[in-house]
Amino acid sequence: MRVVIDGVADQLHPNIPPRRLRRHISPLWLDFKSSGNDQLEFCIELAWLESSQRVLDLACGVGRFALPLTQYLTAQGTYEGLDPFAEGITWCRDHITRKHPNFHFTVADVATPDDRTRSYTAANYRFPYDAQTFDFVYAGSLFTHLTEAGARNYLHQVAAVLKSGGRFVCTWLLFNSQSAKLLTGRSMERIWNSNCGTHRVIGQQEPEVSVLYDEASVRRWYADAGLGIIEPIRIDATYCPSRIPKDRGQGMHLYYAHSIIALRA
Description:
By secondary structure, the chain is α/β, with parallel strands linked by helices. The protein has one domain: Vaccinia Virus protein VP39 (Rossmann fold, 3-Layer(aba) Sandwich). The chain has nine helices and ten strands. Strands 1, 2, 3, 4, 5, 6, 7, 8, 9 and 10 form a ten-stranded mixed sheet that branches. A hairpin with a 3-residue loop joins strand 6 (194-195) and strand 7 (199-201). Helix 6 runs parallel beside helix 9 (215-225).
């Protein structure tokens, strides 16, 4: 089901974020509007996102998920976007909240590779929302940039702000360590060349650039946080092999991108 037809989206939102802001959240060869539509359709069709629900968008960036969501959520629904990228939050407030007052955006006071001066790290940051506030939490390409301590904390934070029965959809870069033992010359060892046990990174100096996780470890952490994974784990709707550019070297990591749908007990 196509929630937003491109012509309608262009008419209602004649401006998408400028290239310099879009580049901050993803390479420009990954189509901003189409991938945002795909994210929303995935959440509706496979994770039962309803138009009147309260939604939290973690690592909301510059509104890729929020823009199509403005055409789906009713006045009874609400949206909260959270991201440490202050310039992106400003753009979203100016271009989305101004037209849709039930959409709110907050700067997360958490350190990133671009700004280590913030008050908190991903390992000790607490989401600025009350317990059991949201029906639905989405995190696109967030856990792909968190190392273990941050990832485990964020899973517990998600569980805290979700209502009982609420759904959580997020993307991960995943591999199966048992299957990997049977393969030789595997690309994951060439791309993520540093082995950290539960995960692999591209380099130790800036590990958050891209993080590949062992599936078995991720499953344990979900269970520890009280989040039940709804099988199967699926190929991600946005960061998927079909979107690898002509220069395949830029997109080989997309073979490892998956979406996990989870339910809070």
